[in-house]
């Protein structure tokens, strides 16, 4: 598939188009792939889909020439410790739990830029919540949080996640077991682990 974004399915989810550039053997700039993101994970019970766009393992990021695809493999919520992750999340309306949440409450040791592309999404923190609408950007800085689409249409959010480390003065006020309680895998895999 080239040149066209994929149509939404009956549930309203839409797999994003991803265009990846590289270089040929002579160093000429080329498009190495153009099509739907190759890795998507849907959580129908939550009304959420994760579309993995790209991942880097290190900073500075290694820039390859060819068609290598770092998104292959298991989907995890946080980025690699010294890397980045970009994904599009889609939140369908009508999938709130008894607490009014659509995601588990979780914390990652990362800086996450959440750019609302469409609809509106509510960020729920320990003592407050805020609703972000299309064009708004949330800077999520390692806090316990959850997400909820409380509207009546799909919310699409682009997340750029950057591996981070808690500052020593922040660690002094966070729970002593903060690292053991971090989400390090998928949304329903619980804290800890690899």
Quick take:
The protein is mainly beta and 194 residues long. It has one helix at residues 168-171, and strands at 17-23, 29-36, 39-43, 48-56, 84-91, 110-118, 120-124, 129-133, 137-141, 146-148, 155-163. A hairpin with a 4-residue loop joins strand 3 (39-43) and strand 4 (48-56).
Features:
mainly beta; 6-stranded antiparallel sheet; 1 helix
Shape: globular
How are the strands ordered across the major sheet? 3-4-5-11-6-9
Largest sheet: 6 strands, antiparallel
- As a percent range, the share of helical residues equals under 10%
Beta fraction of the residues? 35-45%
Round the Cα radius of gyration to an integer and report it. Answer: 18 Å
The total count of strands amounts to 11
Return residue spans where pLDDT drops below 50 for at least 5 consecutive residues. Answer: 1-5
Explain this structure to me?
It is a single chain. The protein is an all-beta fold. Helix content is 2%, strand content 38%. It has one helix and eleven strands. The strands form three sheets. Strands 3-4-5-11-6-9 form a six-stranded antiparallel β-sheet, with no helix packed on it. The protein has a three-stranded antiparallel β-sheet with strand order 8-7-10, with no helix packed on it. A hairpin with a 4-residue loop joins strand 7 and strand 8.
